[in-house]
Amino acid sequence: MDATTYTSTMRASALMLGLTGIIAVHVMDLPGKLAEVPYMGLMYIGVILAAGFLIHRVISGPTLHDYVASAGLAAAVLVGYAVNRTVGMPGAVDDIGNWLEPLGLLSLVVEVWVVAIGVTAARSITRAPQAVATAVRTRVPVS
Asked: Which of 114, 132, 85 has its CA nearest to residue 11?
């Protein structure tokens, strides 16, 4: 396995681990959300399904779109978390100011992880053609 393949495999694995974390956090909190605020429970189900779909896509061979979609999903969940903790969501004002809830903190860590991996991988993919073109012009092996 060359360095490029190794790096790609590790990025895909790290992304899948983060997406799995997003699923786990939201599955753990789902029963409470469905009971308290059903529409938020449905949003959780949407996040869970989207993350599962993205894991499937990454297993099948990640593309630029998969990395961008994963980062976008995690960023959207981060925004939802921030809104829920600052101004609250309709019918869900109990979490305003509750920044130190353990499951919420775990959610933040996992989502930041997915955004970081997704953005880093997407940037490396968009830069790869330029690196290959430069290597061809200068006859330097690409590693």
From this structure: 114
Contact status, residue 103 vs residue 29, Cβ threshold 8 Å: yes
The alpha carbon of 130 is separated from its chain's Cα centroid by a whole number of angstroms, namely: 26
Question: Is the Cα dihedral 11, 49, 81, 79 positive or negative?
Answer: positive
Q: How far is the C-alpha of 22 from the C-alpha of 90, rounded, in Å? A: 23
> What is the maximum alpha-carbon separation in the chain?
63
Scanning 37-94, the segments in alpha helix (DSSP H) are 38-59, 64-86
pLDDT in tens, the chain (143 residues): 677 778 888 999 999 999 999 999 999 999 999 998 999 999 999 999 999 999 999 998 888 999 999 999 999 999 999 999 999 888 888 878 888 889 989 999 999 999 999 999 999 888 766 654 454 345 445 45
Alpha carbons 117 and 67: distance in angstroms, whole number: 8
Query: How many residues are present in the chain?
Result: 143
In whole angstroms, give the CA distance from residue 29 to residue 41.
9
* Structure tokens that stand for 99 in this block: 């920044």
